């Protein structure tokens, strides 16, 4: 008999024809587990296919969710981050405004009725704002008390006044190197108890364009 068509019995070792279900010598079933249990094999195959499909689907969903979350976080971060040189309409006392690298803060606001020799006009008081300026740019910047004006509740925009009340703290004029900072006061003469006053900053004496505004009352 052709040896290519013969095999050995798994039990008794006798020569038997390939493909026979049982050994003609000892009666041992020659089929493997999967051939003998076709229904179980079918069920196992279905479970495996379903598991693989579920795993692939979960991986894709997680990847999609991760990408969506990452994209959303980046988008939200961009929205939350202020644009360069983007300024608010108004800043409160203690808040820092950043304009072209100029970091400016009104640290406090005082009121004064003047001194024995230097008093405001009748019905008015001195409004003294302490301003801190820091140069966060790469170039020198100039500072000057005349860069500041005040707008009162009547809509009047006025320059600072000269007074001896703040002579020891008054902001001088000069320049700041990169990283340099200066702090000083600017003084105005305004109606007593005026509400809604705005301290306005311009970076040029000859410009009427307001760059930064601080609510100081």
Automatic annotation (TrEMBL):
Residues annotated as transmembrane: 39-56
Gene3D superfamilies: 2.60.40.1240
Putative zinc-ribbon domain location: 6-29
Oxidoreductase in keyword set: no
InterPro entries: DUF4352, Immunoprotect_excell_Ig-like, Znf_ribbon
Positions of the UniProt region annotated as Disordered: 57-83
This protein's UniProt keywords: Membrane, Signal, Transmembrane, Transmembrane helix
Biased amino acid composition, Basic and acidic residues: 58-83
A Pfam family recorded for this sequence: Zn_ribbon_3
Domain DUF4352, residue spans: 91-209
Protein name: DUF4352 domain-containing protein
Organism, as annotated: Clostridium moutaii
């Amino acid at each position: 008999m052709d040896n290519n068509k013969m095999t050995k019995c798994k039990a008794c070792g006798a020569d038997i024809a390939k493909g026979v279900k049982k050994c003609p010598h000892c009666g041992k079933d020659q089929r493997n587990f999967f051939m003998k249990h076709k229904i179980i094999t079918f069920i196992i195959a279905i479970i495996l296919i379903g598991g693989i499909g579920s795993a692939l689907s979960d991986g894709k969903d997680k990847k999609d969710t991760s990408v969506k979350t990452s994209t959303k976080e980046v988008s939200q971060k961009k929205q939350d981050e202020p644009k360069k040189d983007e300024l608010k309409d108004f800043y409160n006392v203690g808040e820092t405004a950043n304009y072209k690298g100029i970091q400016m803060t009104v640290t406090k606001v005082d009121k004064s009725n003047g001194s024995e020799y230097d008093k405001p006009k009748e019905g008015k008081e001195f409004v003294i704002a302490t301003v801190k300026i820091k140069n966060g740019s790469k170039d020198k910047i100039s500072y000057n008390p005349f860069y500041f004006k005040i707008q009162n509740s009547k809509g009047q925009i006025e320059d600072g006044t000269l007074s001896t009340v703040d002579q020891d703290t008054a902001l001088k004029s000069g320049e700041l190197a990169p990283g340099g900072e200066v702090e000083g006061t600017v003084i105005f003469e305004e109606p007593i108890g005026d509400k809604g006053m705005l301290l306005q900053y311009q970076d040029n004496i000859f410009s009427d364009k307001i760059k930064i505004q601080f609510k100081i009352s």
